[in-house]
Design brief:
DNA-bd_dom_put_sf; MerR-type_HTH_dom; about 130 residues; 5 helices; Multidrug-efflux Transporter Regulator, Chain: A, Domain 2; flat; mainly alpha
C-alpha cells in the first residue's frame, strides 16, 4: 500500500511516517516503478508499535532497540539460548517500563478528571449572568 493509505490506517501524518523512515525506524518494503513508497502489513504493524510507544515517552533510540530485538526474535534465524534469553529480557524490560508509564498516565488522567469536575461544580454553582 502507498503512504497515504498507511497514514490513514495508522493515524500518523505523512510527515511523521517519512521522519520514521529517515531515522531508520520503518523503511518501506518496496518502491513502485514511479518511486512511490510501498508498505506491507508488517510495515504497518511496525508503525503501530512506534505509535503506541510514543505517548508513553519512549525515545526514538528506545524504539529502535525494541524493534531490533523483536526483529531478531521474529527473524527465524537460529538463536543461541543466551542470545534468546538476552533478547527476551530486553523485551521484558520494555514491558515493565511501559506498565510503569501507563500507571503514571492513569494517575495524571485521574487528576485531570478531578480538576475538570471541580470546574464543572464551580460553574454549576455560579449565579447566572444578568
Amino acid at each position: 500500500m502507498q503512504i497515504g493509505e498507511v497514514a490513514e490506517r495508522t493515524e500518523l501524518s505523512l510527515r511523521t511516517i517519512r521522519h520514521y523512515e529517515e531515522t531508520g525506524l520503518v523503511v518501506p518494503s518496496a518502491r513502485s516503478q514511479g518511486g512511490f513508497r510501498l508498505y506491507t502489513e508488517a510495515d504497518v504493524a511496525r508503525l503501530m508499535v512506534i505509535r503506541r510507544m510514543k505517548p508513553l515517552g519512549f525515545t526514538l533510540e528506545e524504539m529502535r532497540d525494541l524493534l531490533a530485538a523483536t526483529d531478531r526474535l521474529d527473524s527465524g534465524d537460529a538463536l543461541s539460548d543466551d542470545e534468546r534469553c538476552a533478547l527476551l529480557e530486553l523485551v521484558g524490560g520494555f514491558e515493565r517500563a511501559a506498565a510503569e508509564r501507563v500507571t503514571k498516565l492513569r494517575t495524571q488522567l485521574s487528576r485531570a478528571e478531578e480538576f475538570a469536575a471541580t470546574l464543572r461544580q464551580r460553574l454549576a454553582g455560579a449565579p447566572s449572568p444578568q
